[in-house]
């Protein structure tokens, strides 16, 4: 497994690089946002560990730029403890967060969890192709298309759509979506689910004549083809 570590604190970066290498990972290191974004977009990595506060380009800007072209899982590191800061990162496409200071064992467990999730279809023999009418998803290549037109999805949008597609026809609540996609307990003051649904709908439905993603008032969301 190849990891990209983008961390501007040299001592911490070297500590993590060494520790992850000892765990069997191939680790590429960048000490600022500019170099990190270049490596992230030009190389092939199984996962990116991204510090939120970086010189040159900060972590959120790196993440936003990366999500324009890549769905690589991203684990963010942050010293900011405010819920709003983490929500902004999740909305921008981060797959998980680790708060500084952290134990290496926790970071390793989070990395392994994200990698298992990304590689689960390969190792478990699960369905790797999902379909609903003209909508198709390839879970291995992490690609989605509708009517032959590729959908440019962030990692979170891809995970959200795949969950809805796996359980097509079933109404999923905001609480369940938050738990399944973001691994977080639902907070009624957090609109991360609504924002993600709105962005997904703009890509999945708005360019086409018939919507697939529907809101069930007071209950949640359902993906289904209701016909012409």
UniProtKB/TrEMBL annotation:
<dbReference type="InterPro" id="IPR001867">
    <property type="entry name" value="OmpR/PhoB-type_DNA-bd"/>
</dbReference>
<dbReference type="InterPro" id="IPR001789">
    <property type="entry name" value="Sig_transdc_resp-reg_receiver"/>
</dbReference>
<dbReference type="Pfam" id="PF00072">
    <property type="entry name" value="Response_reg"/>
</dbReference>
<dbReference type="InterPro" id="IPR036388">
    <property type="entry name" value="WH-like_DNA-bd_sf"/>
</dbReference>
<keyword id="KW-0597">Phosphoprotein</keyword>
<dbReference type="GO" id="GO:0000976">
    <property type="term" value="F:transcription cis-regulatory region binding"/>
</dbReference>
<dbReference type="InterPro" id="IPR016032">
    <property type="entry name" value="Sig_transdc_resp-reg_C-effctor"/>
</dbReference>
<dbReference type="GO" id="GO:0005829">
    <property type="term" value="C:cytosol"/>
</dbReference>
<dbReference type="InterPro" id="IPR006291">
    <property type="entry name" value="CusR-like"/>
</dbReference>
<keyword id="KW-0902">Two-component regulatory system</keyword>
<protein>
    <submittedName>
        <fullName>Heavy metal response regulator</fullName>
    </submittedName>
</protein>
<feature type="domain" description="OmpR/PhoB-type">
    <location>
        <begin position="127"/>
        <end position="225"/>
    </location>
</feature>
<dbReference type="Pfam" id="PF00486">
    <property type="entry name" value="Trans_reg_C"/>
</dbReference>
<dbReference type="GO" id="GO:0006355">
    <property type="term" value="P:regulation of DNA-templated transcription"/>
</dbReference>
<feature type="modified residue" description="4-aspartylphosphate">
    <location>
        <position position="51"/>
    </location>
</feature>
<feature type="domain" description="Response regulatory">
    <location>
        <begin position="2"/>
        <end position="115"/>
    </location>
</feature>
<dbReference type="InterPro" id="IPR011006">
    <property type="entry name" value="CheY-like_superfamily"/>
</dbReference>
<keyword id="KW-0238">DNA-binding</keyword>
<feature type="DNA-binding region" description="OmpR/PhoB-type">
    <location>
        <begin position="127"/>
        <end position="225"/>
    </location>
</feature>
<dbReference type="InterPro" id="IPR039420">
    <property type="entry name" value="WalR-like"/>
</dbReference>
<dbReference type="GO" id="GO:0000156">
    <property type="term" value="F:phosphorelay response regulator activity"/>
</dbReference>
<keyword id="KW-0104">Cadmium</keyword>
<dbReference type="GO" id="GO:0032993">
    <property type="term" value="C:protein-DNA complex"/>
</dbReference>
<keyword id="KW-0805">Transcription regulation</keyword>
<keyword id="KW-0804">Transcription</keyword>
